[in-house]
């Protein structure tokens, strides 16, 4: 059986996921597309899914009988509404991160999903599918470096466009680390602070960049994450975990060392699209496989909620300059099974 997939939002990552479903993965077929900018949807169809129907509204797309599963890859602020539509229709939905831009909307999604009585949501926290992060997690879980004390992490983008706001350093960028660190450490956050180093002149005037988020977990682990989204030189994701017995680092993606002109160099990627290409392939294949059975797997709405609660605290901390508490509701049994 081939899973009929409808995609809402056909920008950068929407098109990339359409391409991978159509050309790289198996078991799925793009049958419908929607975008508030219909030209984007038409372009995506032309390039990657010529048989897909272009729907006037996202609601029309979700309602189509040939759409058996939905992918939401529009702007973050629109995710909650479309995920709720898919849940109401009883259709599995892959939602790019963030699940919603605030925790209150994530709660509404969890309540709707629990009311349907079946897991329907997979959140696009692709790093959980990255071989480097999986290897790092295996090292931490087998105790090689002993009890973890600290994490030093870095999220650098080459540059960002004019629509990117200071708050998005948290809700759009740091949210990856907010998910991956609680998953890596099997721990929850208790507080967050955000500090602003000297501002880079390479950022657009409305934006404060770089930023440093300082997180504390229930077990007392301290995590510092540098977010620097106009770093100029490339796309660079780092994570060093320090334990009582040693340190484990996220490996850099492989690149051929080149010696020329008395210089040794290695290429650095410039974009998430290439840095995590295998992880995106694995997460979307997982979605297709599991959604075909009726219920997706992977990061669930609870993961989306947990990251959003922490993100809300970081946004408050950006404004207050203080250490802000991070408080979650008790985990519903539905998300523990
Ligand atoms: P983009 O701006 O390139 O594309 C977004 C598309 O959504 C545009 O075509 C826009 O017209 C459309 N859109 C906006 N509002 C809509 C609405 N109400 N209904 C239908 N379509 C709508 O943005 P990009 O980079 O593709 O990001 C989209 C989402 O994917 C964001 O949530 C972002 O955080 C996430 N993302 C995740 C990545 C990852 O590493 N997992 C990487 C890049 C993006
Ligand atoms: C983008 O939305 C992503 O998710 C990328 O992975 C991240 O590096 C970038 O900062 C975000 O804007």
TrEMBL record:
GO molecular function: inositol 2-dehydrogenase (NAD+) activity; nucleotide binding
Top EC class for this record: oxidoreductase
Domain Gfo/Idh/MocA-like oxidoreductase N-terminal per the UniProt entry, residue ranges: 4-125
Catalysis: reaction(s): myo-inositol + NAD(+) = scyllo-inosose + NADH + H(+)
GO biological process, any: inositol catabolic process
Transmembrane feature ranges: none
Keywords: NAD, Oxidoreductase
InterPro entries reported for this sequence: Gfo-Idh-MocA_inositol_DH, Gfo/Idh/MocA-like_OxRdtase_C, Gfo/Idh/MocA-like_OxRdtase_N, MI/DCI_dehydrogenase, NAD(P)-bd_dom_sf
EC number(s) reported in the record: 1.1.1.18
Gene3D superfamilies the record matches: Dihydrodipicolinate Reductase, domain 2 (3.30.360.10), NAD(P)-binding Rossmann-like Domain (3.40.50.720)
Domain Gfo/Idh/MocA-like oxidoreductase C-terminal span(s) in chain numbering: 137-327
Subunit structure: Homotetramer.
PANTHER family: INOSITOL 2-DEHYDROGENASE, PTHR43593
Described purpose of this protein according to its UniProt entry: Involved in the oxidation of myo-inositol (MI) to 2-keto-myo-inositol (2KMI or 2-inosose).
Family (UniProt): Belongs to the Gfo/Idh/MocA family.
Protein name: Inositol 2-dehydrogenase
Lineage per the UniProt record: Bacteria, Pseudomonadati, Pseudomonadota, Alphaproteobacteria, Acetobacterales
Gene: iolG
């Amino acid at each position: 059986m081939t899973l009929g997939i409808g995609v809402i939002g056909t920008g950068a990552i929407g098109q990339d996921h359409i391409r991978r479903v159509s050309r790289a993965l198996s078991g799925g077929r793009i049958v419908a597309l929607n975008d508030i900018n219909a030209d984007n949807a038409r372009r995506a169809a032309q390039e990657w899914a010529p048989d897909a129907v272009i729907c006037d509204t996202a609601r029309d797309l979700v309602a189509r009988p040939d759409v058996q599963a939905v992918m939401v890859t529009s702007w973050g602020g629109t995710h909650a509404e479309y995920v709720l539509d898919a849940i109401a229709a009883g259709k599995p939905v892959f939602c790019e991160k963030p699940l919603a831009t605030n925790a209150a909307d994530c709660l509404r999604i969890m309540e709707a999903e629990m009311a349907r009585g079946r897991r329907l949501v997979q959140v696009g926290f692709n790093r959980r599918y990255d071989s480097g992060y999986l290897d790092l997690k295996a090292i931490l879980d087998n105790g090689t470096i002993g009890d973890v004390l600290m994490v030093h992490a870095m999220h650098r983008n080459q540059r960002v466009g004019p629509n990117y706001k200071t708050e998005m350093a948290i809700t759009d960028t740091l949210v990856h680390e907010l998910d991956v660190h609680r998953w890596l450490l099997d721990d929850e956050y208790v507080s967050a602070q955000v500090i602003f180093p000297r501002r880079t002149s390479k950022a657009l005037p409305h934006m404060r960049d770089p930023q440093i988020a300082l997180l504390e977990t229930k077990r007392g682990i301290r995590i510092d994450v540098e977010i620097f989204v106009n770093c100029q030189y490339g796309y660079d994701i780092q994570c060093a975990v320090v334990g009582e017995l040693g340190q484990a680092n996220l490996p850099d993606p492989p690149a051929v060392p080149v010696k020329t002109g008395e210089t040794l160099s290695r290429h650095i990627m410039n974009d998430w699209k290439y840095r995590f290409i295998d992880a995106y392939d694995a997460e979307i294949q997982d979605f297709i496989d599991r959604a075909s059975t009726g219920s997706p797997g992977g990061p669930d709405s609870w993961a989306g909620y947990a990251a959003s609660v922490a993100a809300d605290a970081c946004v408050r901390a950006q404004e207050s300059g203080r250490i802000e508490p991070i408080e979650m509701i008790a985990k519903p049994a539905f998300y523990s099974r």
